[in-house]
Amino acid sequence: MSIKLLAPQLANQIAAGEVVERPASVVKELIENSIDAGASRIDVDIERGGHKRIRLRDNGKGIAKDELELALSRHATSKISNLDDLESILSLGFRGEALASISSVSRLTLTSRPREQSEAWQAHCEGREMQVKLNPAAHPDGTTIDVADLFYNTPARRKFLRTEKTEFQHIEDVFKRIALSHPSITLNLTHNDKPVRRFPAVAQDNRSRRIAAVVGKKFIDNAIYTQVDYEGITLEAWLGNEQVLRSSSDCQFSFVNGRGMRDKLILHAIRQAYESAWGVIEQPAFVVFLSVSPRDVDVNVHPAKHEVRFQQSRLVHDFICKSVLDALIDTQGELGAGPVI
Ligand code: ADP
Ligand code: MG
């Protein structure tokens, strides 16, 4: 067999396998794009767990008519232009892969109007088999992306979709993580036309109000708060006390430089602290924000950016563990009884 370049559609579909695992990954990519576009309000409407439709509307800076098609192409990004940018990345996106991937496995309509453009334009493509079609449209400032019939042309992928309920739970999880890290953005989520989550904007420095809205008032009322700085690393944490320990891990939220993570190192450090302080065996509940210099962390480990790699992972681990441990031990006296195990 001779070597051939993959056709662009096939290349995009292969990449989609990594970026677009399920409807929730589409929701994550689209919301992150809206945040990068400076939106202060994002509305997400889901039909049938995202199997049928995922629609997102934002009031961000929009995409100019002559860039609509480019936005849907692979490796097209407005966010980085050289390796140096990649090493100090602050935007959520940078791979220029999401829209190309999503549009290769769905029927995608992108409608947008930048503030300085007098009318809106719409691009439509079906699995990228056909050319992108551009039409004039009516739309306020900002962008709407409508993703219908996800995986309609990749039956092997479609087979792996779970029930509507399960897929929607994953979407809600993504939505909650983003809501926690971006308190100053108004975020609304509906499912089958019913409002499910409404998070009005709060001041960036009033994180606890957003946490109360997302995780629950009981959690925030009982949480132990700590903030620690050490050698350019900052940890801000709300730590569940024994009254809100859970049997599942659904209340464990960690963020690195504003990005939601399910990072093993962070989880391990926190669990170790709980175990040392309280001998806890159940799942602790926590909301933890870690800030490090972008140069000390590599976010380009996985296409979906779930994991990071720290330059000094041991240091980061021990810093988190010690900070959490100190906070738990400090408050033990105040809480009185300590853990009931
Ligand atoms: P990336 O986010 O990695 O740059 P994407 O494929 O997600 O790649 O998006 C491609 C480009 O399309 C972005 O760099 C951005 O310029 C533009 N874009 C995507 N979504 C939006 C949006 N909601 N508002 C404004 N511009 C957007
Ligand atoms: Mg993106």
TrEMBL record:
Q: Which GO terms describe its molecular function?
A: ATP binding; ATP hydrolysis activity; ATP-dependent DNA damage sensor activity; mismatched DNA binding
List residues of the DNA mismatch repair protein S5 domain: 211-329
GO BP terms: mismatch repair
Please state the span of the N-terminal signal peptide per the UniProt entry. Answer: none
Q: What does this protein do?
A: This protein is involved in the repair of mismatches in DNA. It is required for dam-dependent methyl-directed DNA mismatch repair. May act as a 'molecular matchmaker', a protein that promotes the formation of a stable complex between two or more DNA-binding proteins in an ATP-dependent manner without itself being part of a final effector complex.
- Protein family: Belongs to the DNA mismatch repair MutL/HexB family.
Q: How is this protein named in the record?
A: DNA mismatch repair protein MutL
* Source organism (scientific name): Alteromonas halophila
Instruction: List the gene name.
Output: mutL
Section covered of the full-length record = 1 to 341 of 578
